[in-house]
Amino acid sequence: MNTKSNTTQYKNGRLFMENVDLAAVAEKVGTPAYVYSAGQLEANFNAYRHALSSVMSEKDFTLCYACKANSNLAVLSLLKNLGAGADIVSGGELARAIAAGVKPGKIVYSGVGKSEEELTEAIRRNIFQINVESEPELELISKIAVKLKKQVTVSIRVNPNVDAKTHAKITTGKKENKFGIDIKKAPALYARAKKLKNIHAAGVAVHIGSQLTSLAPFRRAYVRVAELVKTLRRQGHDISRVDLGGGLGITYKDETPPDLYLYALMIRDVITPLGVHIVLEPGRSIVGDAGVLLSRVVNIKHGDAKKFLILDAAMNDLMRPSLYDAYHAVLPHREKGKKAVYDVVGPVCETGDTFLTNETLTELKAGDLVAIMTAGAYGAVMSSNYNTRPLAAEVMVKGKSFELVRKPQTVQDLVKNDRIPAWLK
């Protein structure tokens, strides 16, 4: 799978997404602004579908897009139209998935801290499955299900104690992580589930982390899951589905992501012999390279040891460089020109508001347009109002046209929600 965007490229020296000059987007909606390629989203989703359908029937798997990567309704709706379900981790994401038209029967609810209110709504909706993270959560689901007179299908998320060899803040499958049930203790929880009312523990779920660039950790985890399924069946449990999570990495700089066809072959070899329905939950690898963050240069600041390229986008717009030390390439809208070395920074009052250090770029000046690349995943969804900065607009491009899919906030939008108590007036 080539995860470098094929839809955002230079044409005649200017940066285009599909057939739209990104300068036209910036002129219409302002900056900073997130821009997503419908064509790239379609290509990325279909790459999964084609790889999996080359080794198994399409009726044997469901692709549930991980909404946490990018939950814009336009993105969810586009993927729903392609056949995607939704993997959600909050009541808010459930509401977004439903609003985008995703059928409840294709929604999986993951996450370690589901509230009673959130679980109640999910059970009312008759979603496909709830991935259980603990015994107290299992007990709570049973209690709600009895009250609502509903039968609830669950998968228990196991922690296989596999090191995904990814960033410490996005690994989820080691024994010290907060996610899942210790795989050795899982049979006892399945036995408990069998005794609870209105619960059907039909599956096993696993997710070991994000941005994995090797198939080896997946194989180790999946082998342990397969062994668990066989054990559970010997103990009398009807296990009919396996949720393999997501986590496949993409190219931000020089990473080499796993080949999707090799990934599919591994699933065929390890999991398909179990005769289960397979659920996959890709997120980043669907939307990551489909989005850019447009920004303009505020000014160039010449320090004693550095030349700072100050943008109007900041860490509140794109948190990943500050939070994960993540690399996002910056491409000037105009391709050619003299070169200069910059630290690319934002205007927020934090030293951590830095996108790149010692980066060689085309020489730029105040007002010039740039695109921060590979920003479709964990960009807009992690943005904040720090420094009372409004959230950026979001735009979707399709061929020669583009539309606003989230209006930019204004400062007035932020201030109007505050209240001064009467005793201060």
Topology:
Elements: E1 8-11, E2 14-17, E3 20-21, H1 22-29, E4 33-37, H2 38-53, E5 61-66, H3 73-81, E6 85-88, H4 91-99, E7 107-109, H5 116-124, E8 129-132, H6 135-148, E9 152-159, E10 181-182, H7 186-195, E11 199-205, H8 216-234, E12 241-243, H9 260-270, E13 277-280, H10 284-287, E14 291-302, E15 307-311, H11 320-324, E16 330-332, E17 339-345, E18 354-362, E19 369-372, E20 393-398, E21 401-406, H12 411-415
Parallel strand pairs: 4-20, 5-6, 5-13, 6-7, 7-8, 8-9, 9-10, 9-11, 11-12, 12-13, 15-17
Antiparallel strand pairs: 1-2, 2-3, 4-14, 14-15, 14-19, 16-19, 17-18, 20-21
Helix pairs in contact: 2-9, 5-6
Kindly summarize this structure in a few lines:
The protein has 425 residues and is α/β, with parallel strands linked by helices.
Helix content: 25-40%
Strand content: 25-35%
pLDDT < 50 runs, ≥5 residues: none
CA-based gyration radius = 23 Å
Number of helices: 12
Please identify, by name, the CATH architecture of the largest domain.
Alpha-Beta Barrel
Separation of termini? 61 Å
What is the structural class? alpha/beta
The CATH fourth-level homologous superfamily of the largest domain: Alanine racemase
Any idea of the CATH class of the largest domain? Alpha Beta
CATH topology type of the largest domain: TIM Barrel
**How many domain modules?**
2
Kindly report the average pLDDT value: 94
Number of strands: 21
What's the story with the biggest beta sheet? 9 strands, mixed
Broad shape: globular
